[in-house]
Magnesium and cobalt efflux protein CorC
Amino acid sequence: MSDDNPHSSRGSAGKSWLDRIASIFNAEPQDISDLQDIISEAQARSLIDSDTKSMLQGVLEVSNMRARDIMVPRSQMATIDIDDTVADMLPILMENNHSRYPVVNEDKDHIEGILLVKDLLQFALDPNVTDWHLRDLLRPAVIIPESKRVDALLKEFRQKRYHMAIVVDEYGGVSGLVTIEDILEQIVGEIEDEHDDEEENDIKKMASRVFQVSALTPLDEFNETFNTTFDEEDADTIGGIVLHAFGHMPARGESIELQGLTFKVSKANSRRLVQLQVIRAKEPVESEES
C-alpha cells in the first residue's frame, strides 16, 4: 500500500539533509585544519555557498589572531593634536573620512582621548561658538596590549559599546590602533560604507586637487576624468594599474606617482586595493610678460 501522506517525503528529505550534515562532522575534527576541511567539504556538497564558507573560515582565522595582526600601524594612524583648531583639523578629516580620531599631545605615544567627528560638528559649523576646547569633547581611549586576542576584543567591543582601541607594546608605546570594522572585515570581507556603493561616487572631489577614487573605477572612466593615458590592455580598473606599478600589495598610506598624479592608498586589505586618494600636481604659475 502506497503512502499518500505528503509529509512523508518532506520528512525523508529533511532527515537526509540532516544526515548529510551529521556525516560531515562524524570525522570528529581534532584541530582548526580539520574544521577548515569540513567547511570546504560542506561547500563541495552544496550545503553552504561560497560566501558562507568564506565567513566561517574568517571566524576560524580570527580565533587565532592577536591585535598586532590586524591593527593599523602607528605610522599610518591619522591623529589630531590636542591644540589643533577647527581649521587645522578639516584637512585631516577630509583626507581620511573617518568617524573618530585619536587625539594626541605632542606625539602618538601620548593619547589624550578619542574625538568623534559628530561631537565636533556643532563647533565647526558655528563660528560664533568660541568658548570651548578640544579636550572637552574627547571620549576615553581604550588601551589594549598587542597580544590581545581578537575574538576577545570583538566581544568587548560589543559588550562595552566602543569602536576603537589603541594598541600598545610591552613598553607602553603606541604601536597602532584597531577598530571594530577591522575585526568584522576579517570575517565578512571588505565593508563598504554608504559612499562606496554608489556608481556615481567612483570619483569624488574632496578639495581643489584632491580626489577620493574607488580602486574599482573603470580605467576608461578614470582616463576621461583625469586626462590620463593609462593603457586599458594593462588593466580594467585604476586599482589594477596602481597595484601593478607598486609591484606588491601596498599598505594603507603608501603612495606612488604616475602620469603627474600622486596615488595614495587610503583603504586596502590583504587581498585588494579598495580606495585611493588621487592628488593632482600644482599647475605651474605662468609669469606675466612685461
Remarks:
- The two ends are 110 Å apart (CA to CA).
- The chain has a mean pLDDT of 79.
